[in-house]
Amino acid sequence: MTDTVTVDAAPELFGPYRIEELLGRGGMGEVHRAFDTVHERHVALKRLPLLAGREFENRFRREARIAEQLRAPHVVPVHAHGEIDGRLYLDMRLIDGPDLKRLLADGPLAAERTVEILAQVGSALDAAHTNSVLHRDVKPANILLDAGGTAYLADFGIARLHTPDVTRLTATGEAVGTLDYMAPERLTEHDAGPTSDVYSLACVLFQCLTGRVPFPAADSVGKLTAQLNDPPPAASLFDRWIPPAIDLVIQTGMDKDPRRRYPSAGELMAAAAAILTEAPASAPPDLPSTDDHGQAYFVRLLAAVGDTRDSTAPPPAADTAGRDTTDVITDHCPYPGLRSFDTGDGQWFFGREQSTRDLFARLSRQRAASGPLMVVGASGAGKSSLLRAGLLAAHAGNAAPQLAMTPGERPIGTLAARLAPFLRTDPNRLAWQIYEQPASFGAMCRAAVAHADAPMLIVVDQAEELFTQCADPREREAFATAIAHAWPARVVIATRADFVEHFISLSALKPSLGAPFVLGPMTTKELARVITGPAEAAGLELEPGLADRLITDVGAGDDLGALPRLAHALRETWRNRQGNRLTLAGYQQTGGVDRAVALTADSMYARLHEYDRHALRAAVLRMITLLDGGGIARRWAPRAEVPNRVVESLVAARLVTIDRDHVQLAHDALLTAWPRLRGWVAEDRQGLLVRQQLGVAVAGWQTSGRDRSDVYRGARLAAATEWAAGRTDLTPDERAFLRASDRERRRRTRRLQGLSAGLAVLLVAALVAGALALIARNEAEQGRRDASSRQLAAESRAEAEVNPVGAMRKAVEAWRESPTVQARGALLSAPLITYPSAFSSGLSNVSSVDVDPGGGLIAIGSSDGKIVVWDTRTREAVDTGITAKGFVSVVRFSPDGKQLATSDIDRDGNVSASSVRIWDVASGKQVARLAGDLPAIGQLAWRPDGKAVAALSLHQDDTRGVAEWDPKTGKLIRPLAKGVVDPSSVSYSTTGDRLAIGRGDGSVELWDTATATRVSRRTEHADATTTRGPNGLMPVQVAFSGDLLASSSVLDNTIRLWDPRTGAPGLAFRDVRIHAGGAGAAGPSALRFSPDGRTLYTNSDLNSITAWDPGNGTFLGNLPQGPRTGTTTGLSVIGIAVTRDGRTWVAANSDGTVQRWRTNTNWYTDPRASVMSIAFRPDGQEITAGDSESGLYTWNTDSGTRVAGTTEQSGGVLAVAFTPDGKRITGAGNATFTVTAPDRGTKPRTVSLPGRLFVGRGAMAVSPDGRWLAATHQPADTARAAQDFKITVWDAATLTERTTLDMGKHWPLDLTFSPSGDRLLALTSSSGAGVTGSDPDGSTAASMVTWRAPDFSGESRTPLGEDTLNTAAYTPDGKSLVTAGISGLIQIRDAETGAVRKQFGQHPSMVRRIAISPDGRTLASVTAEDSTIRLWDLAGHSHVADLNAHLSPLNDVTFSPDGTRLASGGTDTNVAVWRLDPAEANREVCASLLDAVPDDLGNTGCG
């Protein structure tokens, strides 16, 4: 036998290297595995292609030099580089393992592995940045992993130095890199820096955790648009095991503004590690060296406070083995009641673990320029407890210096008293120094901790006292200046949300207002921790169902200020405990969450003698201060002003807190939760105001050494004297002040009596003074009304999500009180609020509900055999005559709404007495009863065409099962699902060719209706649990959308989605609204999709409808209810329904209450991606919007119905416009422009520019006469994109090209024609899109370029300054051009010269888009960083209103042709149409209030 030897081809030799297999190929060459024959080792050999150009050669040499000089542990080492046979090469260590991209192909990485890999990459980047090297292409493919798991950063092929004296090789404007990971500033030619690599690393971090890139657009245009405009998505939405705290870290790393990102990659990964890794087993990576030791301290502290993923688990139970559990701690209540948790209460502090970590994360990113960190939240949100038991307790655990205070009447005195012990100095002298030189406070703080290893932490709690108690504006300003200059100390200021606007007046705190820490309501899980955590820590037992009842009564996390009331109810429940068991009965004795505070206070009041009751009233009112807007707040009252016996009663009831010298109400919750207190305030409001003003006057008099010039005179003395007459509760100082004022009055009277010769003059003076007093009184009254209006408007905006009806009511009341700017904004925003209304059906034991397609009628059935049809327009039941005899299991309107199908089951189980009937809705007459040998029975569904009804047939032959019936005759058409005799739910697909059946055995079956064959049978619900209901049944509910089939069971806590054609399983997600493991853990018993299939609705909440995103299983929230009075018992949503247009939702409760929610017809949710452009048709009857995923939608503006929709464009519909004759013109991202005739029947005309991309948004314009279409475009090749901008002009009728205007590297950000149409104007920027910068050849950043029409000649370029301008619009008279951009100011310019005539309207960030009303009176503006639309008076240059309804930044805004409406759209994918006439908005809101609460209209005047 002969051996056969196969001889391979001779290996390629390259100098001393033997070339082996290809490892990779890219734009900068090929990388091979090679053997170095000199050093006898395998290497990675990178070679530049032979035909590479000069620029690529320069880049390759630069990569070699950079890689060689970087000697860092996680940068791929370079052995050698040079040139062999005219070909450049780079010899690197061979990393024999996969790259991160290949690893991610198998799905997301575990959190610990992600941190392990990317922390090493972060250290490599920091090493590069230390050597002034930017990588510029950080992505998974450039992260290599060796066999031991060590990570290396590779491919510095497009890296560059970022020292100021380095010439850029990419000064030609190339955007080199990978779009999925490229920072926005690199896409706009703005200066890139180390934070650009941080942005890319944050993108990779997001991908490692979720398995997807942050912006997975279909093409480069979509990716570029998203990187420039869209906020990063929250990683925690994609996997419930990803802690929400990491979202803030990623969002910071991916901030559009480089200045707000982490300064280094190490800091990004340190923050991520603190959240994602176990502590303290895995310490965070070392931070790069910095002069700020506080930053590293807070990162380490963040890691030490525990893993947030464990925060939802209960604390370890006390070891009770071998002893009676009633002996566990029962003599100490773990609930604080109305008081806040303090620093020593950490063992009882639960539920805010995540917020504590978020707070430390924010502190770790604070910089000197950031100012103090402002914590903002509603009263009762738990700010004080978070700061004291969370932040300060953790800080104190390290023996670190800290200072906590509330401002009080003398904030600087308090601050000095707290700081003096650290400096060992006299507090009074220190207070004087702070007052006179507040900017030196930082030096004082530095000296105070000179020998400490940690920075000082200063916490200013209840900072609203600066305005409610401090009467000296100068001291208030000095205090704000001092804490703003406290660096390197970290300062945290906590204030109520309704006081934020007051802080605007403190200029030193302006940076703090830019990015406050908002403490929102707790989630259901966090509330459960608040209840169960302290109990378990104290060895207490909760009766099953108590926690769920408490969470339900407190609003399941929707009530922003419920925590103190919850804590008080828990404390009172503890007082009513049985042994160590907290019971439902004990809770009910407290009066419930909403009444427990009032019950405690009233019980204390009732125990007092009559005299002490009067003393209590006077004492409590001394602890109240009146606010400018009519509200009330707590104040510290001196102990001397409150009788001891009253203090003792208040302390025993835990209604006050005291220190050595002062007493204060325990919480703001008392101001609203104790009706008796509110009544006292209302009865003596004027007296309170007099006493408050008297207190300020007395303090000033004492400070001045009792100077006579500071006493009361005239009307103020008369008012105070009248108020004080007969009172026994005046303080000695108040009495002394009034006596001194009266002495001064008598002295002046004696002097006046000796001046009789001047009587006439005094008379005239008195008359003048009287007139002035009248004017002053009128002004004061108007000021009060204005303040009240602003307060109501602010409350309206704050309550829009949690109490929509209350928000609408307050918007109307605010406008009625005074037409302030804030009130106008609230009123114009109110019509877009989705609000609930409710009515009583008169039924008990409701079993089913449905709403007709138009939302006009609601049918309700009960287990008592009754059916009610309710007319939503007349708000009363309709006498239809529709009846039933047994248990009504289903009521269902036909697809056209003209018929109603009902199913009732005989209570005795008699099939013959049961029925499915079809009724004519208009007449109430029975059309048919579905029956064969036996009647149809049970669940039913209408076929989408309305020609058949599916219901159970009980024939004794082989047709037994679910069948189709004729609704006109009641006869059997044909069997569909033979043998299925236990349907608990049936549903047709939207096309009618599939029937889904939820069965009583826990299965889901899908049937083909054409062939009557079963497509699939799924048993996942039944397999998930062994629990069964009565008779061993497990009913399943089913519902179809166009793309999905959904199912649920009350015995399975999982909602499951299926393919609607095949039944193949899709996404499955837990119903997180129902507490798994609790007594009621289950799934929803009702499912409905929205008409567009984008939202799934369930009855998961006891009192509302729950919304889910079926795409990823995300809980979207409950439809808002608004506050409830008292506790809620006996309510449970039984059935839900949605109208055909998706604008009305209905929920029927078991007690017969039916809730209905309606959204305004001027709020459109059809777009599926960011709305890029919107336009009204010339007659104003329709509005069209284009989105970034090529969606084009048109709605009727009167009815709100969608009249057209398509996704045929490519690259996104970036611009929409209309010609005067109604032709619609669209611009797509692939530079395709389409003209569609008004009748939509004619085939559209299109023109495309191959190899070009349309810039988008404002870069398309149509001349006023509709003759010309102009648009900006650039090369699709990103290497040339920023160097070859062009504007093409076409004849709009024929799309024949008129001319093309070369713009070179000057980007036309906005195009517009003059009102007369004789001029085309382009607003250009040489620095890209919307960021500051100057271009390399020294030209200004912004210019306006004009051409004469119709020949488009005579180009004229006018510089407009160094700030980039994004948007421009002519005034209707053509005399002025209005511009705006990065400065945040609106500029009115001369239309010819471009000279600025007027600047006004400072915005919080860059202005993205402006629009001017047709009459030229109003300007609307939107910014890049918030969702507010600001309206301005162009003539008066004043602010008119703020419109709020959108959830994220806007891209476009436009006025209707008649100027009465305004349309907006942006990144939240919604389009809104606003009515701008307050009277019209008022009528619309009043109509909604009459629908929602006809008997509770308040002070609206709507009746």
TrEMBL record:
Superkingdom assignment: Bacteria
Domain Protein kinase: 17-276
Membrane spanning stretches: 755-776
Keyword list, A-Z: ATP-binding, Kinase, Membrane, Nucleotide-binding, Repeat, Serine/threonine-protein kinase, Transferase, Transmembrane, Transmembrane helix, WD repeat
Classification via PROSITE patterns: PROTEIN_KINASE_ATP, PROTEIN_KINASE_DOM, PROTEIN_KINASE_ST, WD_REPEATS_1, WD_REPEATS_2, WD_REPEATS_REGION
Residue ranges, annotated region (Disordered): 309-328
Family matches, as Pfam families: nSTAND1 (PF20703), Pkinase (PF00069), WD40 (PF00400)
Entry EC number(s): 2.7.11.1
Gene3D superfamilies: Phosphorylase Kinase, domain 1, Transferase(Phosphotransferase) domain 1, YVTN repeat-like/Quinoprotein amine dehydrogenase
Single Gene Ontology MF annotation: protein serine/threonine kinase activity
Uppermost EC category: transferase
Positions that bind ATP: 46
WD repeats mapped onto the chain: 839-880, 985-1017, 1164-1205, 1400-1442, 1443-1484
Full protein name: non-specific serine/threonine protein kinase
Protein species of origin: Kibdelosporangium phytohabitans
